[in-house]
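Recap for those who missed Tuesday's class. We walked through two folding examples back to back. For each one, the amino acid string is listed first and its predicted structure tokens come directly after. Nothing is annotated here on purpose, so try labeling regions yourself before you check the end of the notes.
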Amino acid sequence: MSPTRIRRADAAVAADMQRQLDCDRDDHCAIDSPLLDAAHQAISDSTPDQPVHVVTLLNDSEAAMVARLNLIRAAQRSIDVQTYIWDQDDAGQLVLNELIKAARRGVKVRILADQLFSFGDPVLLERLATVNQNLEVRLYNPTFHEAQTSVVEFSASIVCCFMTFNQRMHNKLLLVDDAIGITGGRNYQDRYFDWDNDFDYVDRDVMVGGPAARDMATSFETFWNHKRSTPLTHLRDVNRYLLDSVHPGPLPEPRYAHPERVARVVEEAADDAWIDDVLVSDTLRTGRVDYFSDLPAKTDEPGKRSAHEFTTHLMRMVGAAQHEVVLQTPYLVMSDRAKAIFERLHQGTSPPRIVVSTNSLASTDAFAVYALSYKHRKRYLKDYGFEIYEMKPHAVGPAEDNADAAADEGPEPSVQGGKQVHRRVGTERGLLGSRGSARRNRPAPLTTPGRRFGLHAKSIVVDDDFAMVGSHNFDPRSDHYNTEAGVIVYDARFASELRDSILRDTQPENAWVIAPRQQSSLSMAIGDISASLPIFDLWPYRYATSYDLKAGCTPMRPSDPAFLSCYTPVGDFPDVDVSPKLIYTRLITAFGAGVQGVL
């Protein structure tokens, strides 16, 4: 963009900017919030040597949305939002609308979103540029300095400038008044809040109030002022619209596909009794909490230790494990550094137990990544001692979590694993789920019908003492390309709560167990040779396969001598129908080892 065009667009924005406020009070008409009040109290009670924090684990998707809405409405000074995906479905529209309302009552609102999967509509961004003087939006690392990336531009970026294009901002943060923040795995899209009727993510956030919020503010400021964080007037397509003589008019009111569920969470966000019962009652008051974030554009300075700050702390935390590591990641593709750590732990005199909760091919929408996880199963089981549990697409636990919220919408009972489950249907039956970028990542077709769930949470518990919730997938992309962020909580109570949450997802009604296949020594030898090949890894009988618990049996670990008497093999890709994605998975397993770091 030429400086002249940018100056002209800045002048156009200044001329059309809305400056009228809806509130003239000093507190900008903020609502009372026990969440924000507890954060301010923690800051007041803290000393440099003895910090005090309030911490709330946000496993439930509805609570995660309500907490965000409540904090946005309670903000008196500032709201900073950082995210990887911002879609224009119900979840994305709702949060954006609440932020605009906060700006119109006088709160300074800044939104920093990674460009690739956020706000792909230049007309919307043109309107946001002038919606209110207190709202500012920037896009991180825009492809060819445009808000909207076409297929041709996407391909061209891979060819011409791969390292720059491939480095994405994967951080997620909502920070209010520099006092309390929410970070974790959720983006602003229906799937992350159980609002997609076809496919939803099992995800997790953590809400932290106290001194750690200052580190969140420092991190956000670093990203906001980085050269890759691009103001709207600097984007070619948005700039053209801003300088066009014909403008689309003011931003219209949101049009929700399912207004009944939006109304429900809006009501709950203003209900003190609901907030106390669901959020405040689960809040822990604790001491040390650390927020870590990689530096923006960490691929520019790969040798700079601070650029990989969050990754470094994660590895150090896991490497110090004494008796147990409980890891949950949607993508079980280990970085070289992670492999070395787990191999060293497994070879120790008293190796810790390593429990891994991850996706199956039936539950993931990233089948190419799953193919490489599938290729290296033997290494994970034998060299690292992993106990691997892959999520079932119709996991009972997530469905039960949604049963209460669905009750007001006309629940329809179904039976899975001997339990009655309620799925959210009623007025939503037959309607489309989320729109936009969710449509780009379709999971493989299944042999069974019904709403499915896929794992997206990224969390680690070490030795029941401390735990991490964040955006880091523990894979090569998170290590080397994407910037990541998260919270480490040094509290045994929080670690126990998080551990229980992860282990619930490994229970038989929610996951298949990955264990060695019963096969001849010849077949195993051929499989070992095939798996060692970077290409032409074509042998179909892998070292391990999926197992399901037999009726009447008690769950047990794969190392238990009685395991095979209580578990039955269900195939390498249970519940996945024959489809191109199944074929692609096999092909990537056979020929795709070289792209592991990129995936």
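Example two. Treat it independently of the first, because the proteins are unrelated.
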Amino acid sequence: MSDTRTDTATLLTLTFVVSFCSFAYEFVYSELLTVMYGGTVTQYVITVGLYFFSLGIGAALSDDLDGANLGGNFFRTEVLLAAAAPAGFLLIVGLNSVRIPQAVPAEVIWTVARLPVVVVGFLSGFELPLLTRMFDELDDDGSATPSWLRTAGTRIHDFVVAAVGTLWTVERTEGRRSGLSVILAMDYVGGLAGAVVYARVLYPGIGLIPTIFVLALLNGVAALVFVAHFGEWSWWPFSDAGASVSAATGGNATDTTDSARADRSLSAARVSKALLVVCLLLTATYAGVVAKHDAADERLSQLYLEQQIENEYPPGAMRATVTSQETTAYQHVIRYNRTWTGTGPNPHFDGRTERCLRLGAAVQLCESWADSYHEGLVDVPMSLVDPGPDTKVLVVGGGDWIAIDHLREYGVTVDHVDLDGEFMRDAKTDPFFGRWHDDAYEYDRLNTTVADGYRYLQETNETYDLVLLDVPGATDDDLLTLYSTEFYRSVRTHLSEDGVAVTWGYSPDAYPEHHKAFVNTVGAAGFTNELSYWVREDLDDDGETERVEQFYVLAPGERPRLTGDGATRYVRAREEHYAAVEWRAVPHYRGVRENSIFHPNYDILVDT
């Protein structure tokens, strides 16, 4: 028989570990569903709600578990969690790695993708009641609880009671607290640790995929530590005591209840021996995955990304191969090659391969349209301002430095603001970007600030003749600020008397609801006039240009035409196209709310 104090300390440590895993699983699934389906608020709220609902169901049903086999049930729970959590993670990834027939209702996919949350929450609900009951059996007189924990618990309890007593009538109770209060204390501490370590260490340090295997490994280790330490206990199905009870009931059982309990113990022992082998295999496998977490993360990520990264094209039209990926503090950077197979809507592209860059869920740059995009962003609106050092331009985003290179040709003064300093540093020496930015970061009239664009505009007193918004689409919550009424109002406030702002925009044909929300938002911010234009490029070398990207010039009043006396060389060379582009009043669409920081148009911009 092991020392009771050591047994108690082991149970408390196991409580901390399983609570750590339980809380962290909740965040892993929330983030995974956000990555797969977008909408951080939606995914986190629904996941947390489902998780706690399932946790409560599991806890409520835990009383029906065999009280004579508490240890065996706890062991089974940990093994099942170690198996189910990574399996559920891979199920969600798999649902987004294959093309599901359109006949399958979206509600079915939504439900299946959240089943792992329910399963893991349900199993986690068993843990605390089982641990509490085992702790009560151990510490029936309170002497096994470490003195420091008893003292700390008493002091905390007295403090809380005193605080509660200022508002409610309380009655102090004497005597030892039940095991529930001690186990709950460790559970809450473990949950806090799981949340902090996940947010500050695991997710930013090793990524989402290795994290799920780290947590499953901890569940497996917890199960093995439990069986190694408590193997001789009478309520543990591997124990000699359990076997002797079974043998005794063969001919000397005195009542049918003891005989039935012994039969259950034998059955549980047979199952648990098989589970022990499973636990050992799972734990060894997860240890190997965690030891090689970089390779595992890269390979599993590539399998998913290569299936989904170009899913806006028809099935089979594009083949993608991920060449590298890394995660900065603010975004997931993916470099890949895509090859046209000739089965899509553009047979002229058959066999063509090009390199592309993706930031998070949005394509940022591809070789075929890198030039035309930045010509549309910079060279077209420069027709509306005077070139030269007295002209001040603000670039929000543009961490690849390519827009800066285009502005350098006009000799203007540039303030450049981008949040991701790590990406900006890498782009300086990356050959993929270097072919376009030509070391523009060394431009002598450039002032670069690593900061959030919205905060920068809140703090600066500068005014600008041209503001260029070189930012990704509103694909997640972190970008909603840059599509808010408050942000566009700040942009308008910092424009000079004749200044304009330029941004890439959602096409009303391809994204009608996004377009309506965008237009209503800039209108609410005080922009009364807009000039919409497409940049065109002969992408398939057939002598005909195709639409590439749509841009919007925004102004709080009347402005000159693009083809006036100040037209740039780029616009003059395409005068036939840009002469037809005219300013018009910013429209307002009924039934679509503008996007605000405190009341985001979430269901349209992100959760679609």
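Answers for example two:
The chain has three domains: 1-141+179-232+270-300, 312-359, 367-606.
The longest strand covers residues 318-327.
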